[in-house]
Amino acid sequence: MAGMRVGVLGGTFDPIHLGHLILADTAWELLSLERLLFVPAGNPWRKAGQPITPGHHRLAMVRLALEGSRFQVWTGELERPGPSYTVDTLHELRGELPDAEFFLVMGYDSLLDLPHWHRPQEIISLAFLAVASRPGADDEGALAQVEAILPGVRARLVWLDMPPVGISATLVRERVRAGRSIRYLVPPQVEEYIRIHGLYRLAQRR
Description:
By secondary structure, the chain is α/β, with parallel strands linked by helices. The protein has helices at residues 18-31, 55-66, 76-79, 86-96, 108-113, 120-126, 139-149, 169-177, 188-197; strands at 5-11, 35-40, 72-73, 101-106, 128-132, 157-160. The longest helix has 14 residues, at 18-31. It starts with a strand and ends in a 9-residue tail after the last helix.
């Protein structure tokens, strides 16, 4: 399909939570997307040395969260050996969908971190950046800093007007470890999966 608009939302998803789904839904609506792909990281190089839940658990939770939704899972990073680089993912997706227009969906903090990613200049040549704006943030000042390192990023940027969501995967993991409820932070089926498999407790079952 020529000119298909495709959103790409990557992440560790350890675990996927409602903030991810709200971001995806916002991007779908505001960008008039025809497909949106959740891309679980296989070996996230930016988190080297940090404990990460095995990929089969993270993928299972993403699949559960997306059941019945209009979103899809793309497993290329989990299947690809070596570090998971966004630039490689975009090249692979472009090979699969050569006529598509790609939008890399991300949070505000990811935009600020983009200059430290692998081959960031190439990333902005392959996809538009669809970034969730953060209330009260100095968008112009932050963007000027990114633009100084990555010339042309401003022309590839689309702001997503998204309601603030104070949920993070770190928060979810910490609450599980503390024995606190994660209801309404993750989809019910993800909450049940975490419970059944004993994820995020001190002694995890693999």
